[in-house]
Amino acid sequence: MPRWSSKGEVPTLRLGSSFRWKTFGVSLSSRVEEFVEFERVAWSAKATGVDAYHAWLIERRPAGCRVLTEENQNGIAARLNSTLRPKFMPTMQRDWLDRLQEKAKGGPP
Q1: Total number of domains constituting the chain
Q2: Domain limits at 28?
Q3: Among 5, 11, 20, 81, which one is most buried in terms of CB atoms within 10 A?
Q4: How far apart are CA 76 and CA 51, in angstroms?
Q5: Is residue 95 a part of any domain in this protein?
Q6: In the beta sheet, which residues pair with residue 35?
Q7: pLDDT tens digits along 40-77
Q8: Under a CB-based contact definition with an 8 Å cutoff, are residues 83 and 66 in contact?
Q9: Is residue 81 part of a domain?
Q10: pTM of the prediction?
């Protein structure tokens, strides 16, 4: 995930932003490929054996919003994970959305 500076500044998310992050024990290099504020964000993610594209569509609702998510993964590591742990990614997607919801409840950083 992008890191906050020591001055407490929050990185700006925008089309073309690049960041490095770690999830499921894998370090990824990512780039924001689509960005329409309050509507959608999508990013590519690359690591050894993984080439992924992840998108969130944000729908405004009277009580907040709903986030629809889709991901496409290619590469040997992605195929092995899908074969050996077929329920892993859907479970992790749910975990990501649960964490996003908890973070959003706290308001802006």
Answers
A1: 1
A2: 18-105
A3: 81
A4: 9
A5: yes
A6: 41
A7: 999 999 999 889 999 999 999 998 889 999 988 888 87
A8: no
A9: yes
A10: 0.76
Pair of tokens at residue 83: 């074969």
| Calpha distance 47→15 (Å, rounded) | 21
Distance CA 17, CA 33 (A): 8
Cα(28)–Cα(6) distance, integer angstroms: 23
| CB proximity list for 5: less than 8 A, separation 6 or greater | none
Q: Which residues are CB-neighbours of 96 under 8 A, at least 6 positions away?
A: 69
The CA distance from 73 to 50, in Å, is 7
Q: 46-59: b or e for each residue (b if 16 or more CB lie within 10 Å)? A: ebeebebebebeee
Flag whether 85 is in a domain: yes
Q: Token digits for 78?
A: 């992605």
In the block, which residue shows the tokens 């590469």? 75
Q: What is the pLDDT of residues 9-23, one digit of tens each?
A: 666 789 999 989 888
Helix or strand or coil: residue 81?
helix
Is 45 among the domain residues? yes
